[in-house]
Amino acid sequence: MGSGIYIATAGAVAQDTALDVAANNLSNASTTGYKAQRVSFGEALANTRSVDAAFTGVAQMSSDASTGTLRRSENPLDLALTGDAYFAVNTPAGVRYTRAGDFRLDGEGRLVNGAGLAARGVGGAELRLPPDATDVSVTRDGQVTAAGESVGQLELARFAPTSLVREGENLYAAAGPQAPSKEPVEVLAGTVEQSNVNVVRGMVDLVKISRTYESLMRMIQGYRDVESAAARGIGRPR
Known about the structure:
Layout lengths: L1 H26 L9 E9 L8 E10 L6 E3 L6 E3 L4 E6 L2 E5 L5 E2 L5 E2 L5 E2 L17 E2 L4 E4 L2 E5 L2 E2 L6 E5 L2 E4 L12 E3 L1 E3 L5 H35 L5
Antiparallel strand pairs: 1-2, 3-17, 4-16, 5-6, 5-9, 5-13, 7-8, 10-11, 11-12, 14-15
């Protein structure tokens, strides 16, 4: 009885985490370049005398690396990437990586994404265009040109899945070295990579997780009721 309530509680905590992840995925179904997060569960033997007692918990959270739907746009600075590469951007916390390629020019002529973060060029410099720049375009190898003249090349990066840490705001931090390129990476201008969240699957996951969580909470309440009844019965005259 005593271990049962803790096992159910551990399961409820794990499902609560999964619920947060599923809800966050759905809320980012329309976020450019967003990668859905996946939760996997693991079982760990409890440190008790009962050999069959085990707790379930979150073993790993990972990103779904599949490419989202590519949508054509009228903006030549909307960029998408083939394969598993990332755009490098400058943030107040340092270099970060993202698949969000909804770029534009800010008031200073810098190439920035939808969050206002400046794109990094090869070598680390920001890409700035002249105030009177015309015919701005981006080639498949990431060269940014204005009136036919190159103003820099986008810094693109590839990492092993375990070498990136999700930080929120559609950004990742490097936790390891970049991975060698296995195939050429192409920049697709005038294209936006949409979120890879499947809304139907997300809704089904949300319902399943919610029901599992509710069942576990009912189990916990049932254990509490039984133990309370047992405690009240102790010492009662027969």
